[in-house]
Design a protein that fits this description.
Helices cover 25% and strands 43% of the residues. By secondary structure, it is an alpha+beta fold. Strands 1-7-8 form a three-stranded mixed β-sheet. Strands 2-3-4 form a three-stranded antiparallel β-sheet, covered by helices on one side. A hairpin with a 5-residue loop joins strand 3 and strand 4 (27-34).
Length: 89
């Protein structure tokens, strides 16, 4: 049996954090990944969008695995996208 999960993704300067919640707001799983910050010269900082994408994907995958292993009802197997479609994980 699968359930609908709510996902929060925080793209911070130094880390990406993802939390998965059940429909009542209880945390099912958390995952974090560090992001790179390049400082090629004093007073200048750069980050790459691909690093955020990779970190967000990794935290979503880890969160999904954790939610399945810690939930007695099967965890999150589907993610509902903003356009309403479902992605099977």
């Amino acid at each position: 049996m699968s359930q609908t999960c709510l996902i929060g993704v925080d793209l911070g300067t130094s880390v990406v954090k993802t939390s998965l919640f059940d429909s009542e707001g209880h945390v099912l799983a958390d995952a974090t990944r560090a992001t790179r910050l390049s400082q090629p010269m004093p007073g200048r900082a750069e980050q790459q969008g691909d690093d955020f994408y990779a970190a967000a994907l990794a935290t979503l995958q880890e969160g999904s695995r954790k939610s399945r292993s810690h939930s007695g009802i099967g965890g999150c197997h589907h993610f509902r996208r903003p356009d309403g479609r479902r992605d099977r994980h």
